Amino acid sequence: MSSFAGLTVVANGKRCSDWTPDTGATDGSGYHLLLIQDYSRTRRQVTTGEHISSHPFTVGGHRWSVRYYPNGDKPNCAGFVSLYVDLLDDTFEKPIDVQFDFSFVDPAVKHKKPANIGESGTPVPDVFSQVNSAWGREKFIEKDAVERWAKHMGNYLAIRCDIVVVRDHAELVLPDIGQHLHHLLETELGADVRFEVGGELFAAHRYILAARSSVFRAQLFGPMKEGATTMPGAIVIEDMKANVYRAMLSFIYTDTLPTMEKAEEDEEGVMWLQDLLVAADRYDLQRLKFLCEEKLSEHIRVSTVASTLALAERHHCRMLKEACFQLLQVQTPSCLQEVMASSGWEHIVMAYPSVLNELIAKLISLNQK
């Protein structure tokens, strides 16, 4: 059973100096409460990108705090509450594997978690280290749901953060099948099929491709299969860049998103992610498509929102589409006019008129609140 690790009170949009100290949950698991009094005032005073941190507390022999963003930690999260856990230790010898969980609770009922409001745990531990000392949920729960809960609770919120220190990272034996399969891809050992993409040749393994993609399965083993059982003839892939195909193959073998050639914030990095999402959809790689969609949702800018929105609509990416809408909803009228005057927006109006209708409905709904 988790130990109580203290209470932080927020009033008038600020953390109170008086607080209930933790008892030092050294047994590896504990929970801290962040109590927000007069929630509606806090929501108005603390704008998007601004946060309130809890007082430090101890769980598993380590010092932690909770970061609370009532209006999201960035513009594309403005419709959500963002929550993070920060590791505050000054020094530590090795990384720490931690499971954490946020939920809204009723402190009057012994901090019991309700069954249906904002609960999001981490079944796979996150690794806290000197490099990555914070993890969290940028889109933990929609603000509308929080407001309904706060109204039910008399205009206050109690956020419970449960932390379980699983074990020292060095003690874990991490799965390495992805590393081994990637070695096969890099060395071409046992490869039995070759593809030509943008003038470059890629050797791969039919059974691995077929196991991961229904499209490759049909292409390599179905009635319309291409290529022989050995490698001499290359299957030519049209309408795709070589670096995108290389990244897609890397994902197929490792099940992880490959390292980007450019920074995620750069326009080239965004275009690379967009191309990779298109490739994932083309080859029915749903997990890769989701990972690209998630990354793109974090890096939408006014200059790229039109092309990203068109991409989301064309490839049925609901999460990415909503992220674009959220960014547009927080822009000034002049900025919206600039976006809608762009050639990218003209393409949306011509190709996907329903998108414009959805945006207008959302803007009207926002103005009526």
TrEMBL record:
GO biological process, one term: protein ubiquitination
Pathway where it operates: Protein modification; protein ubiquitination
Domain spans labelled BTB: 191-261
Stretches assigned to the MATH domain: 29-163
InterPro entries (UniProt xref): BACK_BPM_SPOP (IPR056423), BPM1-6 (IPR045005), BTB/POZ_dom (IPR000210), MATH/TRAF_dom (IPR002083), SKP1/BTB/POZ_sf (IPR011333), TRAF-like (IPR008974)
Highest taxon of source: Eukaryota
Protein name, entry field: Uncharacterized protein 5K14.5
Lineage: Eukaryota, Viridiplantae, Streptophyta, Embryophyta, Tracheophyta
Gene from which this protein is expressed: 5K14.5
